[in-house]
Amino acid sequence: MSSRRRFLATASALAGFVTFPARAQTADSTPPLAKRAPAFDDYYGTKVSDPYRWMEDTKDPDLLPWLKAHDAHTRAFLSDVPGRAALRARVSALSGELSATRKAVATGQRVFFEQRPLGAQNYKLFVREQDGRAARTLVDPTTLTMNGKHVSLDWWAPDPTGRLVVYGLSPAGSEASTGHVMDVSTGRILEERISNIDYGITGWLPDGSGFFYIQF
Known about the structure:
The protein contains three helices and 13 strands; from the N terminus they run H-E-E-H-H-E-E-E-E-E-E-E-E-E-E-E. The radius of gyration is 23 Å and the shape is flat. The chain has helices at about 5-15, 65-80, 85-95; strands at about 40-45, 45-50, 100-105, 110-115, 125-130, 135-140, 145, 150-160, 165-170, 180-185, 195, 200-205, 210-215. It is of the alpha+beta class.
């Protein structure tokens, strides 16, 4: 079942026993409205207006207050849902307390996998050797920063021999990846840095001596 279908099925199941309380539409219960500042694009003579283009500018002084106001509004609404505490505890028991693996690649004598460990909030990159020893961490984005900002692990790909792994890191969830290359045996990160390869590499050479990539 696809992720989308799985989500819809879950949402339908939850809808069967979660009832939202009726709320009077007062000034306090109305979601904060965003300002409209039309920007126009001209597509071969057809002008298209985008009144919310300003939200793409993270430095706009109105953006953060609007986001915080919506967060407060949503939390206030959800806090009134009957049985919310019990539902949250049950969901946590079924999902939040489990490790989750979303990608695994076997190459050479190693298995690489990306996993969110038990109780963790972020995915990390691990490797397991053929000898069966405990997996070891290769990339833990929670311990890294870029320009003083938190880091996300966007993508990764080991070479066909399992000797090297290339991976992309970006600051503050921007997905503007910088490629890094690691020697898997030693954990040493090579000096090469490749900026603006947001979608990862397109493939390694068969002998692991290099890889192809598309750079913005």
